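Amino acids appear as letters; backbone shape is given numerically. Here is one record.
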Amino acid sequence: MTTPSIETRNLTIRFGGHAAVNDVTCAFRPGQLTVIVGPNGAGKTTYFNLISGQLTPTAGSILKDGRDIAALSPSARAKAGIGRAFQLTNLFPKLSVLENVRLAVQARHRLGPRLLRAAGSFGVLRDEAMRHLEATRLAEVAHMPAAALPHGDQRKLEVALLLAMEPDIFMFDEPTAGMSVDEAPVILELIAAIKQDCSKTILLVEHKMDVVRALADRIVVLHNGELVADGEPDDVIALPIVREIYLGVPAGEEAA
């Protein structure tokens, strides 16, 4: 079995007396797409926030390639190869679509002091940014302000930003949320394409069971902040506890 690219050990965060994530130990490996599911309030996004650095754990550790990164800032974790897409788009709204991606490319190349120079000054970086826009089907709107894009295109732009950073760990929090039936397949195709690279690790929070079944190599179930199931999709979905807490089907009954 391959060495985990990222894992949590006894990871816990408390808000007052409430444990939003409680003693979660879980390892994620390259070449694997893990979908994290559970009812609202299960702790899925909180768990993501702990891994990507938006929250600091009360206890436990987060290991990337064997190194504890629990004390690192979100930006330091991004530089270490953890890429995160949020439920809400996280863009520079007044900059163009191309400039958004070009900034991400520059950041990866550690050109921070010159981030605000004109995009045309960096031909190679601009070309690289355009390749990511072509992959996400955004090349035709490259010069539009990000704020002018419809919601679906903003979600695609956020994926383009992730691609530009070239992380080895991709984290998607409900990537198709708020997207139309016509828009969602593009995002799912992009995630499926990333999955083809066996050096990448993908973590995905998702509610839609059709998305889960289409993409998951593995399902992890959280409930009340605790890990209650972990395994291959068919096996996990068939568990009575999962059918009851996630699908709303009492043990002994068939799902609709």
